[in-house]
Amino acid sequence: MNKQRAVGLLSGGPDSAATLAIALREGYDVHALSFDYGQRHRIELNRAAQIARLLGVASHKVIVFDLRAIGGSALTSDIAVPKADPAAPVGVGIPVTYVPARNTIFLSLALAYAETLGAAHIFIGVNALDYSGYPDCRPEYIAAYERMANLAIKEAVEGRLAIRIHTPLIGMTKKEIIQSGARLGVDFSMTLSCYDPAPNGAPCGQCDSCRLRARGFEEAGLNDPASQGGSR
Ligand code: ZN
Predict the structure, then answer these.
(1) Confidence of residue 229 (pLDDT cuts 50, 70, 90)
(2) Tell me: the pLDDT tens digits for 163-211?
């Protein structure tokens, strides 16, 4: 039986690594896709390549474009990444680390790639519970995107592909994501969560993403292999 092809978005973070591990376990022939978009945490791309290799995906492609031309985010311009006391709660509202229309841009590139591969399935590690308030991580956004995708591409309109956007993490807590990834053998030491890492990849420990990760590992009762050995 032919394996079903899927495109899996891979950032180098724990959520996308867990998502791809789930896709592989479900039997998909996973083609990983990463984006070099001018993100300040660009070191995550090295991690993405290592994760792709460790997971054993069918292929890994990196598409280069530069969202710094648009800016408007702490991740792509000179706006400072907010840092807080690790013990303080993660703030409410949409933070400055929001990248304008990022998942719409990412999913559109994934959709184009899927069409050329003949892949009906796209996996993206969005999460609507323990996330930072991004509007393009919500289930209603994903459902709308999937409807749009099937109106948008030739292969769908002519009946050869019915695009499905898979979001296996969307209803999970960070704790559940960590547990699920750990069960599937994800090497979290390779994953990078930090929005503002040191040049050597050491996480800052204070941004929202570092804090959510720390809480996830703590609640899962696991040690974070990436935080061992003093990384500051
Ligand atoms: Zn950080």
Answers:
(1) very low
(2) 999 999 999 999 999 999 999 999 999 999 998 999 888 999 999 889 9
Determine the distance separating the centroid of ligand 1 and the alpha carbon of 41, expressed in angstroms. Answer: 10
The CA 205 to ligand 1 mean position distance, Å, reads: 5
- Give SS3 for 56: coil
**Alpha carbon of 200 to ligand 1 centroid (Å):** 13
Rounded distance from Cα 28 to ligand 1 centre (Å): 32
Whether the CA torsion 125, 130, 134, 136 is positive or negative: it is positive
Q: What is the mean pLDDT of the chain?
A: 90
The helix/strand/coil state of 62 is: strand
CATH 2.40.30.30 for the 5-220 domain, yes or no? no
Q: Where are the domains of the chain?
A: 5-220
**Distance from Cα 170 to the centre of ligand 1, integer Å:** 22
CA distance 20 to 38: 23
